[in-house]
Each structure stands twice: as structure tokens, then as C-alpha cells.
Sequence to fold (493 residues):
Amino acid sequence: MAHGPAAGPMLQQYSDTASPSGFSPAPPLSEEGRRCLAVQDALQAAGLFESSPAWRVSPVPFPLTADEVSFFEDLGPRLWSFSKALNRLYLESVKGRQPFWVHQYLDQGKPQALLDYARMKRFREAVPSVIRPDVIPTEAGMTITELDSVPGGIGITGSLSAAYAALGDTLVGGAGGMIDGFAGLFGSGEDAGCVAIVVSDEAEDYRAEMDWVACRLRQKGLDAWCVHPRDLRFTEEQPSLTPTLVASTPSGERPVSHVYRFFELFDLDNIPKSELLMYTAKKGGVSVTPPYKPWMEEKLAFALLHHPMLEKFWSDELGPDVFAHLRQVMPKTWIVDPRPLPPSAIIPDLTLDGKAVSDWRQLAQATQKQRQCVLKPSGFSELAWGSRGVVVGHDIPQSVWAAKLDHALDAFSSTPYVFQAFHKGRQFEMTYWDERAGQPASMEGRARLSPYYFVSGDEVTLGGILATVCPKDKKVLHGMRDAIMAPCALRAG
Fold:
């Protein structure tokens, strides 16, 4: 795949030119304008930015203070410890060494065949090797709204980092940090074998960026390809031989050593060859990351971190300092469980107008001021990614809120919901390229910062941070046409 030209030529091609006779000359293009158009050109050359842009481009990276950069550098190893501890908590719950309700919550709505597969001994220690939290900068500090184990944006962040680096900017993670970090998951050169990035129809919107990632990996010497599940086939010539997964690529058929799973587990029934891929992994013929562990992709993990009955487990596993830090940056979260409580019981730490809550239906009549909260499906659902199922309590009428709460309670057996405290992001002012006006403009907005951590062995690398700045009136922060998207850099001075 083609990549953007070097910074010099990109800036030069926007130099002022004489206007045709009879027309007023166009106003000179500012340095900010030149930089925006240079970034756009680099993204279009990479196949990641259509003629009708999907987001706004800034002339400069999103600035972070030195303390904020240190926060993100420290956060990665802490989240890695949390992922390993969550996996251990689940498995010990299954064995009866931790409360049984832990794995019951995490298993809710999952097919038993998938759970049996995920609990196999050979996968016991496997956890996602790419960790991406969504972090909101607030007036009180950083708040993590959720963790994503199958994150989009790897290619977008990598290509943006390369584009701004070509203009002379120094990015968090470096110009090639995203690709270097991703490559580190699989080894180096021929020793790594073939890497297949498997992108399903459900994730089709991300295919172009994962194609870009695969192309960059090949430039680094890895035999990496972005493929559709139907491009995979399976061979097992003799029963005694380890089965082999083969990918059909533009360069011919390749025996696959590693699979990067870019599809959601709830969608397994719609993915061609999914049984073959799982069988090959079970027999040791291929490694798969993220692993087939649905409990590692549930938002209700935040509720478990805050549950008073699990405090000793988390403190012992994480250490008191890391445990205290994660409880501070992960907002209080509750599982919306409709089962009745005995008269003497309450939902821990949940209050309404200063009074303890013992039944979720008590919240149906909450006022707009009392509904400073978010309601969202925990996982294993087509509504659990891309902000599709998120409900902001104070952003809807009371009658709609009551209906949404009823729906969440009714969905418990198939798709548990979580109730989370809402944290308002602080405001930033950023410049972007206004396509209609043909010049830079400014926007006040709120930011979502998405750091990408890549884990190789026990080494956690911060590959880059993507900032998504949405207009200030937006309650749910995610990629959208009106959002500015830029990599993060250390603030000058």
C-alpha cells in the first residue's frame, strides 16, 4: 500500500500560485493550513482518509504535560497487572477459591461451548496482549471509562503519528511506536512466521487501517497480512501431525503461525471458519491474541474492582498502591442485577438523594440532577462496542430513562448492563481544518485519550496515544465526523 510523501514536498505543493485572469487571488495559506493539508494528504495516500473526511484534522498533535505523559507511562504496567489479576480471579472463582458469583456474572449470556473452550488448561495464563483504555481528562484528574481488548484505531494512530513526525513533531511513543509495539507481539523476521490479522464483516470499517498495519509490518520484515476469515483454510494430512492454518494472501498461500483476532466473540456464529481456527489453536498449531476469553472483555470488571468483598484479593494481587490508584481512576461501577435483596441488604456505595439503594427500580424516578450516570451493556453484544448501547442518564427525559433502566434489568440474563458514575471531561480549544471554509478554524471540545499498550512477555510498551476531541455539547465521546483526531505529544515548554 502506498504511503504519504515526505514532509518537504507536501508543504511545498501548497505554496501560493497566481490566480487565473479575472479572479481574485486566493488568500495565502497559513502554516497551520499547510500542516493540516499535509496530514490529510499523508492519510489519503495511506488509504485511511476518504475525499469526504470521517473526522477533522488538527495542524498540531494534542499536547500533554510532562505529568500527564508520566501518568500514561505508569498506567500500562498497572493495567497489565489488572488484566492478569482479573483472569486469575475468574479462574479461581470457577474452582471455588473465590466467590462463585464472580464467574457467574462474567459468564452471563455466554454459550457454554465457548466457556469450556476458554477455560482449557493450555489457555489458562493467556490474556490480551493489546490493552487500550479510554481515558477522559477531567478537572479532578484522569478517569478511565472502559478497557478495550479488541481496539480499533491501531492503524489510524500509527498513520497519524507518522504524518506528524514527518512534519517535525515528536510524538508520545515515537513516529513508529504503534507498528514497533504491534510487531513485538509476534517476534521478529522469519522466526515469527506468518501473522494473519483476521478482520470479520462486523469489523469491516477497520479493514483499511489493519491493511495499513500489515503493510507496515511487512516493511519491517514480518510476513504479515490482513485477511478475511474466509481466506483461511485448515490442513491436517495425518492425525499425528499438528494441524496447520493456511491463509490465502495476495502473495500466495501462507502457513500461519500467529493470528491477531480482530473480531468480537459475540459474533462467532457469523464468522466463516471460526471452528477451524479455534481447533487449530486448541491443538497448538497457531497462537491467537486476544485469546478466546469472554470474561476479559466485560465492562463489569470495573464493578468487581470496587466490590467490597473482593478488596483483599485485589490488594494482594495488585499491591496496595496499584489497587488504590486503579480504584481512583476507574469510576465506581455497579452491575445492574434485577434479583431482589433481603430487607437488611443494600447495593454497596449506591445512594439516591443521600439514601441507600436496595432496588434498582428506585432509580427510575431519579431527577435529571440525580442521573449523572451512564448505563451500558457490559459486553458480548453488538451494542457493547462503538458506543452503540451507551445511555447518558442526564441527557434524556425521565420517562425515557425509566424505560432504558427497565430494558437493562430485563436484559440481565442475556446481556448484563453496568451503571457507572458519569465524569464530565474538561474543555480544550483546538484548531482544525475547516473543509467548507478552506481554512483553519477553532473548536471548543472535550477529549477522550486512548493510549495503546503492547505486551511482549512481561514488557509493556506504550506505542502511542490517540486523542479524540468532540464538540463540547457531546456527552458520549467517540470518533465522529465533527471530532478532531490527533496523536498526543509532550507540550512544548
